[in-house]
Amino acid sequence: MGNGSRPGTVVVREIDHEPFEVDGEQYLVRELVWNGIDGRSYEVVRRRDDQVLTEEESFDTYPTDAQIAVALEEHGLDAEMETCKMCQKEILVATARRHDKGWVGTCCWDERLRMTA
Ligand SMILES: [Zn+2]
Question: Using one digit for the tens of pLDDT, what is the confidence trace for 69-82?
Answer without folding.
Answer: 999 999 999 999 99
